[in-house]
């Protein structure tokens, strides 16, 4: 994750310099420079909204990194006292949200991660909940909830309410897919093209804004005007193409290197006769 993220920051920096050169101004360079201390340290969720817009979508990674530290610590140190663990988790999330300039983003980010983690713990402790998630009917309620919340977000937009509800139902959907087997949605998501696209999602997420800027700038330089649907298809294909290169050159080799390190450092397992 970190090596690909570092390479992506370099690519966005080069893009900011290139845009400054092509447009004859330094607005993109200043914007990137102001945001670099934040997203360079996984703190993009705390920077000013007008800074670092070229790579501003990396704010979600800052939330994820902090949650990945807080949650395991609470699980290890306080899990014997469930009430104390819950209080500690909520307190940490409230503090992290309170000190931010964009609380609606923090609420959306931490809510989604918290719902998923809480459901995983609850399902591991409750056989009834786990059995329900495995049932065929369990998949329909989350799907309906996501659809209704999304429709409401179009009719009556809110900074975070509908996002939180979508995250809540999405946690149930993911839990149902994880525990359930041989469902139509499981089979559909397991199709080779979708599975291959799933392996590229992190690289696509990091570089899609960069790819879109390059495509739009190239078309404007060529004086080509396209309808939004054609522009969407071209930008999406460009994002996937960039992601494939980064996945094969950086992400996949780093994942394999990490697995080899874990294998070498893991203690030998003795199996009794």
TrEMBL record:
An example Gene Ontology molecular-function term: acyltransferase activity, transferring groups other than amino-acyl groups
Name of one Pfam family that matches: Acyl_transf_3
Record-annotated membrane-spanning stretches: 6-24, 83-99, 105-125, 137-154, 160-179, 200-219, 225-246
Sorted UniProt keywords: Membrane, Transmembrane, Transmembrane helix
One GO cellular component term: membrane
Keyword match Electron transport: no
Domain Acyltransferase: 3-247
GO BP annotation list: polysaccharide biosynthetic process
InterPro entries: Acyl_transf_3_dom, Acyltransferase_3
PANTHER family noted in UniProt: ACETYLTRANSFERASE, ACYL_TRANSF_3 DOMAIN-CONTAINING PROTEIN
Protein name per Swiss-Prot or TrEMBL: Acyltransferase 3 domain-containing protein
């Amino acid at each position: 994750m970190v090596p690909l993220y570092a390479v992506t920051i370099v690519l966005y920096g080069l893009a900011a310099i290139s845009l400054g050169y092509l447009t004859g101004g330094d607005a993109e360079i200043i914007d990137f420079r102001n945001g670099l201390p934040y997203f360079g340290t996984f703190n993009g969720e705390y920077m000013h909204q007008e800074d670092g817009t070229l790579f501003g979508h990396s704010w979600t990674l800052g939330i994820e990194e902090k949650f990945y530290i807080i949650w395991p610590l609470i699980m290890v140190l306080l899990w014997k006292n469930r009430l104390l663990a819950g209080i500690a988790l909520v307190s940490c999330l409230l503090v992290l949200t309170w000190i931010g300039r964009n609380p609606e983003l923090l609420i959306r980010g931490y809510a989604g991660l918290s719902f998923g983690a809480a459901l995983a713990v609850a399902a591991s402790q409750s056989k009834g909940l786990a059995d329900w998630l495995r049932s065929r009917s369990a998949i329909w309620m989350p799907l309906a909830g996501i659809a209704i919340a999304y429709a409401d977000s179009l009719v009556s937009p809110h900074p975070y309410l509908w996002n939180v509800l979508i995250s809540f139902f999405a946690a149930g959907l993911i839990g149902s897919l994880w525990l359930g087997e041989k469902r139509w949605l499981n089979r559909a998501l397991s199709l080779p093209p979708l599975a291959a696209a799933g392996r590229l999602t992190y690289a696509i997420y990091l570089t899609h804004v960069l790819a879109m800027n390059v495509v739009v700038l190239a078309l404007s330089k060529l004086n080509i005007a396209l309808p939004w649907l054609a522009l969407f298809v071209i930008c999406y294909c460009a994002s996937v193409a960039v992601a494939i290169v980064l996945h094969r050159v950086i992400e996949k080799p780093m994942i394999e290197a990490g697995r080899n390190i874990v294998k070498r450092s893991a203690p030998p397992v003795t199996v009794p006769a």
